[in-house]
């Protein structure tokens, strides 16, 4: 169970902390003086992703009834995540400077923006289904693994998106130099591959 929990946490954290549309908006919120709104955005995005994981788990019950489909889904998820790891490792460098106008939304508006942005993020749905196929379907006690993965996903998303919000300005300066940003992307890609490999042994 400890190995499973570690693999889940690694997978979920990497999925939430790597650059993407949700995190770009988190940086903008973090650059604002309205920290309450920034945290509301993080909570909205995190709860929305957890709901996506929950829905993917509920809709994947058919995988349990057909081992061939379950195995195909597991390897399909591993293939997508391996491709995602490659994309992360070779991602073009981006401008992380907060040159956009500070976000001045109310906490409620920021919460709704986080939830809607995450729910419309295609990567969130694909990664959630991949995670269910990798970490839940193969387990003997699927229900326990399912709720554990939902909880881990919520905490990891809060931490991952929250890091971008809280450290928006600092992160943009620290990752400004191209070598640092490139090393960060490569490290995230390798960790994601290790997370996948640990579940396919």
Topology:
Elements: H1 2-17, H2 21-30, H3 35-59, H4 61-65, H5 67-89, H6 107-119, H7 122-135, H8 142-166, H9 168-174, H10 178-199
Protein name: Threonine/homoserine/homoserine lactone efflux protein
Subcellular location: Cell membrane
GO molecular function: amino acid transmembrane transporter activity
Sum this structure up briefly.
The chain has 201 residues and is an all-alpha fold. It is 80% helix and 0% strand.
- What's the main sheet like? none
> Helix share of residues?
over 70%
Distance between the termini: 15 Å
Strands, count: 0
Order of helices and strands: HHHHHHHHHH
Q: Using the CA coordinates, give the radius of gyration.
A: 17 Å
Shape: globular
pLDDT under 50 segments (min length 5)?
Answer: none
- Which secondary-structure class do the elements indicate? mainly alpha
Subcellular location: Cell membrane
Membrane topology: Multi-pass membrane protein
Keywords: Cell membrane, Membrane, Transmembrane, Transmembrane helix
Transmembrane segments: 36-56, 124-140, 146-171, 183-200
Q: What does it look like?
A:
The chain is 80% helix and 0% strand. With 201 residues, it is mostly helical. The chain has one domain (2-199). The protein is globular and about 50 Å long. 42% of the residues are buried. The mean pLDDT is 80. The chain crosses the membrane at residues 36-56, 124-140, 146-171, 183-200. Keywords: Cell membrane, Membrane, Transmembrane, Transmembrane helix.
